[in-house]
Specification:
Among the domains are: about 210 residues, Rossmann fold (3-Layer(aba) Sandwich); about 110 residues, 2-Layer Sandwich (GMP Synthetase, Chain A, domain 3), CATH 3.30.300. About 30% of the residues lie in helices and about 30% in strands. It is built from 15 helices and 27 strands. Strands 1, 2, 9, 10, 11, 12, 13, 14, 15, 16, 17, 18, 19 and 20 form a 14-stranded mixed β-sheet that branches. Helix 10 links the parallel strand 11 and strand 12. Helix 1 packs antiparallel against helix 2 and helix 7 crosses helix 8. The chain starts with 10 loop residues before the first helix and ends with a strand.
Length: about 525
Amino acid sequence: MITAEHLLTDLGTLTAHAARTWPDGVALRFDPGGESLTFRELDRRSNAVAGHLARRGVRGRDRVAVMLPNRPEFVLSWLAVCKLGATMVPVNAYSKPFELRYLLEDSGAVAVVTESTHLPVVNEASGHATVIVCDGEDRDAFQHEEDAGFAPVPTERAANIQYTSGTTGRPKGCVLSHGYWLRIARHLVADEPHLGPDDTVLTAQPLYYLDPMWNVSTALMSGATLVVADRFHPSTFWRTVREHGVTFFYCLGAMPTLLLKTPPDPADRDHRVRAVYCSAIPTELHAELERRWGVPWSEMFGMTETGLDIRVRAAEHDELVGTGCIGRPVADREARVVDADGEVAARGEVGELQLRGTGMMDGYYGKDEATSAAHHGSWLRTGDLVRMDETGRIYYVGRAKDMIRRSGENISAAEVEHVISLHPGVAMAACVAVPDPIRQEEVKAYVVLRDAAEYQSVPPDELAEFCGRHLAYFKVPRYWTYRDDLPRTPSERVAKRKLDDEPATPTYDRVEQTWSQ
């Protein structure tokens, strides 16, 4: 239960409140390894880290990069930075010097918190930034506890500069305030799914990504335990759920499809999960997901720029399973659909989703032009294509930049990918447009088979015939390429702009019935 809510102005006061309310409750548990922190320990140890950062020269409004895998020091660093009134810049733990250098220079970070295994990369890229090694010379600061707290900071103070995945260009840093994180937590505690101290939440994404951090803020506001897995492992995911008594989790990207491709288990329904929130639930797999694990899966839509925006409520869940409906806007969010001329689209017409309301980003850091381009007056342009029915429910169609134009027909890459992934021999698929002198663009499919070592176990003509049973003829890919894996963002979405960076593999042209390099 949230008490004295008006006093919870920032992540520091939220952490102190959790420490007072549930001092011995387990706030974080890491899997594997089993290390855990109570709410009291999380508060006091982040106090100690904050004091250490201050002694190393970090001041309020400074930017501090954190480049760590899923380990306690990541969360401790985030809360410590926020308690100082500074801003964290989360960094992909697999970044190379070129990528890290860009984030440090773009954000103006004065310090980098990392671990010893990443030192070669950090030292090459850090320039004049102070390097803090959580398992090296700075280790003691991350193990100690301090009672002394820190003064609250304004709700509107930047807590994060959260960089986008950069699937369409160089990453842009979204400036996210303390209020951004508190707003998401309040929605999930005061409203569905009404998380509380009896809940255990699981995150299997990297902590440097957006979703695990709202899981942290929600645990702090609800008293729930957050289990942090090292990464997403489809084959052992539900075993982890059972072992920790998980009651709620969120997933997205390829996760649902990959989970369904694991062999059925007699223990599939032996768990405590009462709700699953997911973005982009495969429509034809939605009912199967619920039948197999015996729990409702509900759509939830949000962006780094906006946080939590739209979701399916429990009262409407049953009638919307498998429809592709992502729900209605939450209480403090407005949504509209705009056509190509910038006018509000008629109900049922496909157009761009635009959003406005409280708790959204304060722009892209240092990029006024990009911030301006992302807005249409007071509305934020999402770049997502949707339609809204007569009742105000919203249905997702695809990304505006992920549409393929073939002979005058618009083809949703996501729709074709979904159908290919339904084939029992396919683990993952991605579709892109390739130029064509006659049809403007053709569809090319990149496919990862479940048995990736034997490409011809599912030949491309079989996949094309399979697609033809589910899709209009013009949507069936002409070109087919097999890969051992596909490059992905931290959110398990395919990073399509990196597909051409991968080693070249033969491509099959089903019209010419030829293979070429």
